[in-house]
Design a protein that fits this description.
Layout: E1 2-7, H1 19-33, E2 37-45, E3 63-71, H2 79-87, H3 91-94, H4 101-111, E4 115-119, H5 122-128, E5 135-139, H6 143-157, H7 161-182, E6 187-190, H8 193-200, E7 207-209, H9 220-228, E8 236-242, H10 248-269, E9 274-279, E10 297-301, H11 306-311, E11 315-318, H12 330-337, E12 341-345, H13 348-351, E13 362-364, H14 367-379, H15 381-399, H16 401-413
Parallel strand pairs: 1-2, 1-4, 2-3, 4-5, 5-6, 6-7, 8-9, 8-11, 9-10, 11-12, 12-13
Length: 417
Amino acid sequence: MKILIPSEIIPTSTHNVRSGNIVLFNIIQSFLKKGIKIELVFLNINRNTNLKKIPNFSRNSNFKFSGEIRLNLNQDETFLQKFKKIFFPRASELFPILNLTNQIKKKVETIKPDWIFLFWSEKLTHLFANTNYNLFAYYGNPIPKNLSAHNLLLSKYKANFYQRIIQRIYLFNVSRIHLNLMKNVNIIGNIAKNDALYYKNRGHKNSFYIQNTWFNKYSDKFIKKKIANFNLKDPIKIAANLGKLNATANTFGLIYLFEKLVPKLIKVFKDKKFELHLFGSEKPEDYIPNKYKYSEVKYRGFVDQIDEALMDCPIFLCCNNATLYNVGHTRYLHAWTLGRCVIAHSNVRLAMPEIKHNKNALLGKNSKEIAQLIYKVSMEKALLKKISIGGFNEFKKEFNSDIVVDKILNKMKHYQI
């Protein structure tokens, strides 16, 4: 079997600024282990990229880098074009990358793959939707869902009445055209269970949930030793954000953290000290309330040695799934592979059902419960160890890239129209 992987990111064997680079590397490596022929095409969209960084996968004869395609999507829009894009759009006006379909078709026809594997990219999923080849989208966060969440934030904190009306019209048209394009994608492997249902409930019978994946940087022995030697010193260090501080999911999470959770933590911890470490580049959105109010919150910025920084925090807290915007995240997997104790809102199970309370994570139904769980685990070393080792084992059981790729190949081999 030959699989074409078009990508707008370069796979890397070490952790980079974005999680996608390392996830893609490990998926390609797992495909190659199974004897699959892989051709990688780099779609260079409006950027300067050093192609020498593309790995050769130990010179595996089944891997071929088939070059770069430069795509220029920069375009200035007139007022009339913007008006039409919102109210009466064609597909190519909402998604300009569709104007490059013929160029892409020619490239695909020279490769003649059995399948095209689309990795974490709305742009490329739209672009390849009309190539008439078998498509597997390894996909998350449908674009209408993202846009709806973004609109919700703007409506609450920024937009006026007329802007809200325009947002709704634009969302309606984006959803309609996006779902029409997705009909041409043979299989949609969603990395969040609720997103799989989103497409399935809208008529896509080959939409299903498949696990996200991450990688084991350290040996089992090293991580288990780290877990055994947890030091619950004062103040308790809690990792409370990972990734860009102004990203949509993180914005929802930070609002929940500052509005609801931090006051509860201060109340439950009383005189005992704790610190909330926020890792990630950029700045939080201006409209987030109380973001600089609490001395317990430590903005760490982008940290190059992120694994070491996270391992200095026994507890890994993620508030993103506590809100209406519920998505799958690699950060849970990242924390598990480092032997950290994951604490989150129970809503996370709608996206990632493998996360289970008191087995591999501690899950609360509201901010009061979450605060109490954080306090409890900071007092009980045995519970901290139990949850941490449970998460580490769950990753190896369900989220290893070899396991995920087996499921992808099985779907491809047994695909029926």
